[in-house]
Amino acid sequence: MTLxxxxxxxxxxxxxxxxxxxxLPAGGVPATVPGCVHTDLLAAGLIDDPYLDDNENRLGWIxxxxxxxxxxxxxxxxxxxxxxxxxxGLDTVATVxxxxxxxxxxxxxHRGHRFPVRAVLAEGANTLDVRFTAPYTYAEELRExxxxxxxxxxxxxAFLRKMACNFGWDWGPTxxxxxxxxxxxxxxxxxxxxxxxxxxxxxxxxxxxxxxxxVEVDRSGQEALEAVVEAAGERTAFTVLAGEDxxxxxxxxxxxxxxxxxxHGEQPLYAVTVRLGGQVRRFRTGFRGVTLEREAFRFVVxxxxxxxxxxxxxxxxxxxSRLTRQRISDRLDQAVAAGVNLVRVWGGGLYESDDFYELxxxxxxxxxxxxxxxxxxxxxxxxxxxxxxxxxxxxxTRLAPHPSLVLWCGNNENLEGHADWGWQKELGDRTWxxxxxxxxxxxxxxxxxxxxxxxxGSPYSGTPDAHPQDPASGTVHIWDVWNRADYRAxxxxxxxxxxxxxxxxxxxxxxxxxxxxxPLTPDAPLVAHHQKAEDGNAKLLRGLGDHLPQPGADFDDxxxxxxxxxxxxxxxxxxxxRSHTPxxxxxxxxxxxxxxxxVSWAAVDGDGRRKPLWYALRAVYADRxxxxxxxxxxxxxxxxxxxxxxxxxxRHGLDGAVLAEDEVVVSTAAxxxxxxxxxxxxxxxxxxxxxxxxxxxxxxxxxxxxxEDTRLALPPARYDVTVTESGGTAPGYRVEVTARTLLRDLAxxxxxxxxxxxxxxxxxxLLPGESAVFTVTGAVLADPDALGAHPVLRCVNDVVTR
Length: 802
Ligand code: BMA
Description:
Elements: E1 2-7, E2 13-16, E3 29-30, H1 37-43, E4 67-75, E5 82-87, E6 93-98, E7 101-107, E8 113-116, E9 124-132, H2 135-146, E10 167-169, E11 172-174, E12 184-190, E13 193-203, E14 209-218, E15 225-231, E16 234-240, E17 246-252, E18 270-276, E19 279-285, E20 290-293, E21 298-301, E22 304-306, E23 308-313, H3 325-337, E24 342-345, H4 354-363, E25 366-370, H5 384-399, E26 405-409, H6 414-420, H7 423-427, H8 434-448, E27 454-455, E28 476-478, H9 480-483, E29 498-501, H10 509-515, H11 525-529, H12 536-543, H13 555-579, E30 586-589, H14 612-620, E31 624-629, E32 632-637, E33 643-653, E34 658-668, E35 672-677, H15 680-683, E36 691-697, E37 700-705, E38 719-726, E39 732-739, E40 743-748, E41 758-759, E42 764-766, E43 771-777, E44 793-794
Parallel strand pairs: 23-24, 23-30, 24-25, 25-26, 26-27, 28-29, 29-30
Antiparallel strand pairs: 1-12, 2-3, 2-4, 4-9, 5-8, 5-12, 6-7, 6-9, 10-11, 13-14, 14-17, 15-16, 15-18, 18-19, 20-21, 21-22, 31-32, 32-35, 33-34, 33-36, 36-37, 38-39, 39-43, 40-42, 40-44, 41-43
């Protein structure tokens, strides 16, 4: 057997197949592969950055244009019998020509292709063309043929297997692109070739690691083939029988220790090699067992129930081909640092890159993978049915080795859409995706990856007849908060599992400032362009409710109040839901990340800056949490050891005076919750507007007010600040704030002084006399003392004082 792999990433040019509204040179522009049209035109200086101002508006023609990528390469015959062009990903409607002869087609971004080309490969120079038909042309033609379908957006994404949010979303721009978005190579080979390897790691009934390996071969001969698999010191030989093209072997790996989510243990990973006829395939895997208790929607990993502290993940860039492993790693590190133990890869996006799942394996982040269907009725007719089947088989195989992956989920919100959004009337007898979610996808998962649970969609309640939003079973998405209801409405729900809920807030000041020129006011047209949600800015203001005052004309106040309200709304929900453990076994916040600079539900903005929500998440996703609700303190202990000690409850005046004190000796077992009724001395204040409650257990502290801030008699803020340069390897500043008055939700925004500056802590409430230290890193500041003043240092007292 021989196999040669020649990457084809050099010498590409990009040309348009019809007139375009810019000066594209006749010979085209240099193109990057992997890449896409938008990033090539940007690199050539022909378009303005689509993420800045409202440049997006002038680029709509790109998705309606046919494009050609061309390169040439030399080839010398090497005696091999076969030669294939291997595309890991084409986005999306592509015809491939070698030396002018068509060798293959694709209309699916979510899969790879291997096109045999031996017959047309020339000795010496070869010309390779990849012609892309405009995504809109293909999708609209299919829509015309199959009949329209209802959906949340007036875009034809349900008619094309392409990342749906590339057509725009309520947080994303419409930048419909084309391109060779994943690697491409020429492979020449002789003899039997390993066509695919499926690795299924799990634990057997006795808790011992085991690995099921399926090898598929591509060959013309009929002889038996010897194969070997090695993992963690174990080695097993097996045979692909004469005349067969696949074989499966299961290997016991007693030397392997179990893989855990980081909230529960370590992440040992093991190299696996599979050899056949001189070829070697290398993988890395980890071993864990996962089950999903269906009604409770409870994940059990290695026999231990896991409370899911999750975040939803959207594509990190509208142009995913330019994402680096480092960027994905940084974003996932931010999730881990906020206490997150699960990332849901949302169905309007992608099956993510290998980097993404490898990093989740390393960092101990569980992954819930939606199949890429979201917020629309999807036709089941050909060619779509077969395209979906092919992409699903390929991706289930590709992602199966990753221990982080614990759930296959059919879609995002399409079952709910069908049940609740008026689709049935519009659809008549047209298909809408039922066959994908209830038949095709579960069959593929059962056949290819029986080690993982499959769930038809989210929200979903466990049977096709049940209402998908039944809180007593399966998952719910809570969106009346944000769209209509005050965030206190979270407290009216006790669901099994909340797979989506969230609240909008603006990005960091430095992010918005970079993205938008001209004046910064919420309604300035260029700022408003970076808000994609229906009625978004009005909902931001309405959401302040009686929690915080309406901002006046001051942009800085608008930014501070709406960011703070976002943080509080989500934290309120999480405290409530976690206090209902174990009935409720998970929360997945909408959303961790952004794909560009925008006002959105994200905790980390499009430039990677952490919003106040991120700091609030870190507090409420900590292993140990004190949640005060319904006249009781709930001690939520999601740590592996008991939480014992003396719970100190103190009722203070806003001036700090102690008005009442009580102590309760408590013990909360590992992974459980204790409810401690508030003693009468602290349960009821004498004056709701002038008192607060502090609950302390060990080094966990909760500060609760008896009244919303708009009715609180907060004093004007008075404090002392000292800023000192902290030496050491990473230069920075130590900002110590000592409160002379109560300071509510103290925050520092060093990006106001330098876009590179970051702070380690935010949203700290200080009683008079208390101090907090903030560490600012990332930049050398011209005027460090500015860290102690408006608009860098903020607290609620700034905007509410009596
Ligand atoms: C959920 C998500 C997304 C959307 C978000 C906010 O339904 O599935 O569709 O961005 O709501 O509206």
